[in-house]
């Protein structure tokens, strides 16, 4: 029996390796264009650095502007036919992709471990979650896009019933999707699936760290049998093809998740519809009557999962002074239990994605140290690996109070009142998410209303999911709203057809 199982696993591994072999030439992963895996004519490649070893793990093609042009033109042509494809057939193909994604969970998850140092269990979860998202999107697309609207003219004052207006949702055209390094598969499919079910074509520009996982994911769409040219994936340096992509006249919509680059994109995009999530400084407000054990658990989970490299991570704790000592003690006890090490070992804290990121985090820590923050743990760093650190007694003149570290470092600011906490939250240029811990739901709702955040969680850490919930940020945290239904609606436009009838004679009947 054991031999039978081992043989089947070995055969599956060989099949998957064979399937993915067409993606690689001379140890460099190809880009995907017009239904084919191609080598860039630039003759250049971009290294993907393993955050744990800090050595080159993979190489991807450095596409040039001419190749981007060709990809966008192929997408434009393919989209015209795809828009005429029956909705149920689009959904059928997406369901097929979801199944293939789950079949290929392991090789994709392995890439996430090596490219972005995501713990193995979390990498596996990301791929499975992505398959579920694609399936849900297929079903939701049928519900959302299968409905039209019907209006009559005499519902507006001064009009007779002489006009009947029928409205429907039609695709925008070519959608450009740019996901971030921390969820290069999940946040890619959260853009791809809504675009496709809505009748658009799509061009994916993955991040360098995470590019190979995204290419493996793209191969699942290839295996599902989508029309040639409908979906493409171009890799390369943002400095060489980034602006060319985002300012290209053939792009009809941009969905971007990332950092400050998004602000530059929004200024250059012109009249193109935008969907953007640009990060946050998610605050956690702890009131006197809160369950401190629950709050401490959520602070550690929210602040240190995937080493704090999430836009929805808890980025600052605002706690009422009278309970601060107790809360900090409980949080520190839980931090002590976190494991630190390589992602292959499923450690809680793994290396941050680049040396540049680690240096930035360290600069925030050193600034806080110089200005008198209390270190609850010894600051420790080895290469890209930074041990979890809680900074107590942080003041508003410290950079860590306002800047987003995107790492396993969490500041605690002691406050005298709820009003002070709200003022601190709203003074930030970010407005993604926040959370409140209290047993008084009435108070929680009032505080939520006062917080300038896209989403406020009550008695739970910030979180993006479930993936069909609305997800949006205010101020510098984003434009538009995400979540499956919102994304489908955003990637379509309303078209009206008006039937005009003769003026009534009032002689009938």
TrEMBL record:
The active site is at residue 277. Keywords: Cytoplasm, NADP, Oxidoreductase, Signal. Residues 39-496 form the Aldehyde dehydrogenase domain. Residues 1-21 form the signal peptide. SUPFAM superfamilies: ALDH-like (SSF53720). It is found in: Cytoplasm. Belongs to the aldehyde dehydrogenase family. This is NADP-dependent glyceraldehyde-3-phosphate dehydrogenase. It catalyses: D-glyceraldehyde 3-phosphate + NADP(+) + H2O = (2R)-3-phosphoglycerate + NADPH + 2 H(+). It is an enzyme of class 1 (oxidoreductase). GO terms for molecular function: glyceraldehyde-3-phosphate dehydrogenase (NADP+) (non-phosphorylating) activity. It comes from Penstemon smallii. GO terms for cellular component: cytoplasm. CDD domains: ALDH_F11_NP-GAPDH (cd07082). It comes from the Eukaryota. The keyword Transmembrane helix does not apply. Its EC number is 1.2.1.9. Pfam families: Aldedh (PF00171).
């Amino acid at each position: 029996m054991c031999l039978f199982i081992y043989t089947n696993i070995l055969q599956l591994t060989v099949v998957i390796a064979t399937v993915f072999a067409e993606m690689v030439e001379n140890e460099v992963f190809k880009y995907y264009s017009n239904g084919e895996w191609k080598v860039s004519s630039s003759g250049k490649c971009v290294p993907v650095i393993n955050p744990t070893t800090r050595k080159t793990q993979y190489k991807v093609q450095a596409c040039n502007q001419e190749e981007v042009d060709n990809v966008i033109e192929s997408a434009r042509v393919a989209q015209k036919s795809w828009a005429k494809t029956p909705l149920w057939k689009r959904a059928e193909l997406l369901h097929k992709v979801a199944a293939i994604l789950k079949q290929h969970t392991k090789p994709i998850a392995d890439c996430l471990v090596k490219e972005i140092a995501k713990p193995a269990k979390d990498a596996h979860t990301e791929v499975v979650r992505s398959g579920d998202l694609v399936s849900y999107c297929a079903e939701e697309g049928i519900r959302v896009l299968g409905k039209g609207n019907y209006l009559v003219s005499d519902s507006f004052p001064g009009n007779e019933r002489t006009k009947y207006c029928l409205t429907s949702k039609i695709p925008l055209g070519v959608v450009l999707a740019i996901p971030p390094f921390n969820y290069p598969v999940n946040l890619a499919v959260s853009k791809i699936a809504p675009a496709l079910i809505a009748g658009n074509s799509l061009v994916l520009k993955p991040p360098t760290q995470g590019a190979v996982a995204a290419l493996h994911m793209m191969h699942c769409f290839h295996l599902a049998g989508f029309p040639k040219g409908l979906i493409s994936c171009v890799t390369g340096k943002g400095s060489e093809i980034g602006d060319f992509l985002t300012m290209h006249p053939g792009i009809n919509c941009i969905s971007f998740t990332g950092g400050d680059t998004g602000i530059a994109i929004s200024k250059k995009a012109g009249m193109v519809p935008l969907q953007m999530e640009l990060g946050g400084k998610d605050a956690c407000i702890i009131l006197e009557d809160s369950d401190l054990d629950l709050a401490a658990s959520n602070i550690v989970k929210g602040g240190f999962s995937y080493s704090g490299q999430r836009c929805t991570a808890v980025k600052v704790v605002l706690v009422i002074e009278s309970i601060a000592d107790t809360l900090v003690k409980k949080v520190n006890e839980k931090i002590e239990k976190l494991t630190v090490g390589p992602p292959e070992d499923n450690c809680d804290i793994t290396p941050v994605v680049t040396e540049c990121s680690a240096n930035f985090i360290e600069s925030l820590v050193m600034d806080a140290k110089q200005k008198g923050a209390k270190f609850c743990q010894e600051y420790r760093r080895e290469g890209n690996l930074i041990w979890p650190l809680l900074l107590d007694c942080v003041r508003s003149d410290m950079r860590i109070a306002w800047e987003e570290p995107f790492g396993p470092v969490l500041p605690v600011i002691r406050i005298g009142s709820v009003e002070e906490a709200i003022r601190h939250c709203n003074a930030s240029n970010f407005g993604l998410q926040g959370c409140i811990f209290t047993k008084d739901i009435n108070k929680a709702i009032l505080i939520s209303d006062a917080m300038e955040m896209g989403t406020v969680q009550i008695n739970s850490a910030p979180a993006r999911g479930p993936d069909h919930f609305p997800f949006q940020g205010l101020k510098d945290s984003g434009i538009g709203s995400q979540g499956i239904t919102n994304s489908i609606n955003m990637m379509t436009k309303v078209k009206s057809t008006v039937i005009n009838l003769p003026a009534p004679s009032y002689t009938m009947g």
